[in-house]
Write a structure and sequence with these properties.
The complex is a heterodimer of chains A (about 120) and B (about 150).
Chain A: E1 3-7, H1 11-23, E2 27-32, H2 35-45, E3 49-53, H3 61-71, E4 77-81, H4 86-94, E5 99-102, H5 107-118
Parallel strand pairs in A: 1-2, 1-3, 3-4, 4-5
Helix pairs in contact in A: 2-3
Chain B: H1 3-22, E1 27-28, E2 32-51, E3 55-61, H2 63-74, H3 81-105, E4 110-112, E5 116-137, E6 140-149
Antiparallel strand pairs in B: 1-5, 2-3, 2-4, 2-5, 3-6, 5-6
Classes of the chains: A alpha/beta (about 120), B alpha+beta (about 150).
């Protein structure tokens, strides 16, 4: 079981991701609606894994990824985005993301990725 | 890239994105040139396009299209008005994001802004020339998609 922080500006996606993760036996320890909130919550919650949307107001997912890695160089961050261009995937992976999931995604893909990243 | 070819590429990439995201057997209506768009109920999202060219993508969805998408994609009905707004916004984001991914395969590199969502009856007036098409499920219009490019 992993302790997960879900980050997405869409309340619907936070709800769907939370449902999928809980159904898969994981614990969602927090939900953030932008990158700024995510960085603050990462510091206080120390989750095992973060699912991170990219296009968000206030602070986008790539900037939040960088800030979280400053706090914890071993952080497990999985990017979840509607955009799957090779350049963006490469930027995220080079930036330290552990994996990249393209929306729309299903429960099996989410749980498989969590398993792969946190073992 | 010549503008007409750019429009064709953008339209094809956008329609393919609709099919990928909504996961339905939908058909595309004939494209038409527009400089305005009228919203008659339903939810309409506007996404800014940045990168190799600037413009906007307008996705005007009927409530029925949104409900069908929620059922097909996540097996659930959405009754909470706030969740309906959130899901509609995310649908627009996914269609625009997937369209950009499709375009990147053709060598056009774009980024998108977070969607702005509108509900009710209104009009977008005076944007640069765009191309619009309807997407149908049988005889029923599910959504109208407009791509408008600057320059």
């Amino acid at each position: 079981m992993a302790r997960v922080l879900v980050v997405d500006d869409a309340a619907f996606m936070r709800m769907m991701l939370t449902n999928m993760l809980v159904k898969g036996g994981h614990e969602v320890v927090g939900q953030a609606e932008n990158g700024k909130q995510a960085v603050a919550m990462y510091g206080s919650l120390s989750p095992d894994l973060v699912t991170m949307d990219i296009t968000m107001p206030e602070m986008d997912g790539l900037a939040a990824l960088k800030s979280i890695l400053v706090l914890d160089s071993g952080a497990n961050v999985v990017m979840c985005s509607a955009m799957g261009q090779q350049s963006m995937v490469l930027e995220a992976i080079k930036g330290g993301a552990k994996d990249f999931i393209v929306k729309p995604f299903d429960e099996a893909k989410i749980l498989e990725t969590v398993e792969k990243v946190v073992g | 890239m010549e503008k007409s070819l750019l429009f064709t590429t953008a339209l094809n990439g956008s329609f393919q994105a609709v099919l990928t995201v909504l996961q339905g057997d939908y058909e595309r209506g004939a494209p038409r040139l527009v400089t305005q768009h009228r919203i008659d109920g339903g939810y309409c999202g506007v996404v800014g396009l940045l990168g190799d060219f600037k413009g906007r993508l307008i996705v005007d969805m009927t409530e029925n299209a949104i409900s069908k998408a929620a059922l097909t994609m996540y097996g659930m009905e959405i009754n909470d008005p706030d969740m309906l707004v959130s899901f509609s916004s995310e649908l627009v984001n996914m269609i625009a994001g997937n369209a950009c991914t499709n375009l990147s395969n053709g060598g056009i590199h774009l980024d998108i802004t977070p969607p702005t969502l509108m509900y009710g009856s209104s009009s977008f007036l005076g944007f640069p020339e765009g191309v619009s098409f309807d997407v149908f499920d049988g005889d029923e219009r599910m959504l109208t998609l407009t791509v408008s490019l600057e320059g």
